[in-house]
Amino acid sequence: MFYEPKDGHGLPHNPFNAVVTPRPIGWISTRGLDGRDNLAPYSFFNAVAYEPPQVMFASTSAKPDRDDTKDSVANIRETGVFCVNVVEYAARDVMNQSSGPWPREVDEFDHAGIARAACSMIDASRVENAPAALECKMRQIIKLDGAANFIVVGEVVGVHLRDDCMVDGQFDITRFQPLARCGYRDYAVVRDVFSLSRPGD
Which residue blocks in the chain are alpha helix, DSSP H? Predict the structure, then answer.
């Protein structure tokens, strides 16, 4: 089939996010100026540069108590910092619980029973037992076409790696099995990896 998004797809559910899969999940933790912590997963997320290391995530909807966006972007606008927590398969249920459209005063760490730890370089909490956490300083918030579409770009200024995920000097993702987002209500888990050498390497 072929369709033009502006005309609609005619299917029971939008296939777009099922096409671009699997997508890594950025479990974004922030703190507002009021001192409240927030934790929410975003599947429009990725690493985008090495030098300096940078990541991005996109927020694509709004809450009535945040005007044109959601808690994460609103907090980052206030403070200029955020932390990306890597989601392992074992955390799938608590990650999902943190994804609800809770009022701004709800602390998802408490709501979902997620242990927190203080970040080292920024004023925010991180998921204590996450396989990795990237402390970030916001560099840009880019408004995209659409009512509530924003890209947040951050520079990674601190990296936490869980000790049991380090094997012979490498970060071994098979030790924790990262969770990835697919389309609809579907997720995937990475359990098998293989290596390829690029020509000239």
Answer: 16-19, 71-79, 92-97, 108-112
Task: Single out the residue of 17, 180, 11, 37 nearest to residue 105, CA to CA.
Answer: 37
Residues of the chain with pLDDT under 50: none
Say how many residues make up the chain. 201
CATH superfamily assigned to domain 20-189: Electron Transport, Fmn-binding Protein; Chain A (2.30.110.10)
Compute the distance between CA of residue 185 and CA of residue 181 in angstroms, rounded to an integer.
8
Question: ω into residue 5 within 30 of 0, thus cis?
Answer: no
Q: Per residue in 56-108, pLDDT tens?
A: 999 999 999 998 999 999 999 999 999 999 999 999 999 999 999 999 999 99
SS3 content of the chain, % helix, strand, coil (to 5): 20, 35, 45
Does residue 193 contact residue 178 with C-beta atoms inside 8 Å? Answer: no
What are the boundaries of each domain within the chain?
A: 20-189
Identify whether the C-beta of residue 1 lies closer than 8 Å to the C-beta of residue 97. no
Nearest to 133 by CA among 105, 188, 91: 91
The candidate with the shortest Cα–Cα distance to 94, out of 110, 71, 115, 113, is 113
